[in-house]
Write a structure and sequence with these properties.
The chain is an alpha/beta fold. It has one domain: Aldolase class I (TIM Barrel, Alpha-Beta Barrel). An eight-stranded parallel β-barrel has the order 1-2-3-4-5-6-7-8, surrounded by five helices. Strand 3, helix 3 and strand 4 form a beta-alpha-beta unit. Helix 1 packs parallel to helix 2 and helix 7 packs parallel to helix 8. The N and C termini lie far apart (35 Å). Bound molecules: phosphoenolpyruvate. The site of phosphoenolpyruvate has 14 residues, from strand 8.
Length: 267
């Protein structure tokens, strides 16, 4: 194990004891009327969120409006993507400081849809991950195996490789807050969640890899989210697992009742 001297680590622990982190990923779904109805409903319910931290990740075009609606509520805003440069000739891209300017505190990095449909590899994801943290944005690093990798028993090795490819101990001095989302590709948008036991087994493994990199104390404080067909009916069982510290929610995050039921399971 690589035991790093604590002084060299600048992680601000997020504290598992502080409650679940529940993140809604709207993907490419947004319209002004539907977004405001949803956000107003979330904001109204937020007094009952208890210890849960709730984040919504609208598409870029809807972030500024969402920030306005959520101002004064405890709900945070996340983005679904970010570029690593601060500014310049990068047509179509959005920088971390631009996200900060519209109220973004979190960003999803390495969602499987970006890995598979947009060719985002470890080198790109690593740049995004560190650029977000350098700007004070908490990256949520997504990892997960494909169906065939699971069928071949490769899931632990695949996910560990994805994690180690981005979490580079050589860059330790640049670390701030981050979270990790285990999202098996076969569970995303399919209605077929991993079982609570499958998810817990993987989260335990991820925690031990993080402990190998950072030491036990910091590994305990890093939030590990599960994502993949989380719903109001399976959230409580998932959240009851020792190493599941929250959820990254896709489809259900656009349905007020369903999302609020997930949040209620995490309070
Ligand atoms: C996701 O997009 O990150 C996701 C987990 O989607 P869903 O909840 O729809 O499976």
């Amino acid at each position: 194990m690589l035991a790093l001297p604590l002084k060299a680590v600048s992680i601000v622990p997020m504290g598992i004891g502080k409650g679940k982190l529940i993140v809604g990923n709207w993907k490419m779904n947004s319209s002004p009327a539907a977004d405001s109805a949803l956000l107003e409903c979330f904001a109204k319910s937020s007094a009952s969120f208890g210890t849960a931290t709730v984040v919504v990740c609208p598409p870029f075009t809807a972030i500024a409006a969402a920030s306005k609606i959520l101002a004064g509520s405890p709900i945070s805003i996340g983005a679904q993507n970010v570029h690593w440069e601060a500014s310049g000739p990068f047509t179509g891209e959005i920088s971390p400081s631009m996200l900060r300017d519209v109220g973004v505190d979190y960003v999803i990095v390495g969602h499987s849809e970006r890995r598979s449909a947009f060719g985002e590899n470890d080198a790109i994801l690593s740049k995004k991950f560190y650029a977000a943290m350098a700007s004070g944005i908490t990256p949520i690093l997504c990892l997960g195996e494909s169906q065939s990798e699971r069928e071949n028993g490769l899931q632990s090795a695949v996910v560990e490789r994805q994690l180690r490819a981005v979490i580079d101990p050589q860059k330790i001095e640049h670390f701030g807050n981050f979270a990790v989302a285990y999202e098996p590709v076969w569970a995303i948008g399919t209605g077929k969640s991993a079982t609570a036991e499958e998810a817990q087994t993987m989260h335990r493994h991820l925690r031990s890899v993080l402990a190998d990199i950072f030491g036990e104390k910091f590994a305990e404080d890093i939030r590990l989210l599960y994502g993949g067909s989380v719903s109001g009916s399976n959230a409580a069982e998932l959240f009851a697992q020792k190493d599941i510290d929250g959820a990254l929610v896709g489809g259900a995050s656009r349905k007020a009742d369903e999302f609020l039921a997930i949040v209620a399971s995490g309070t």
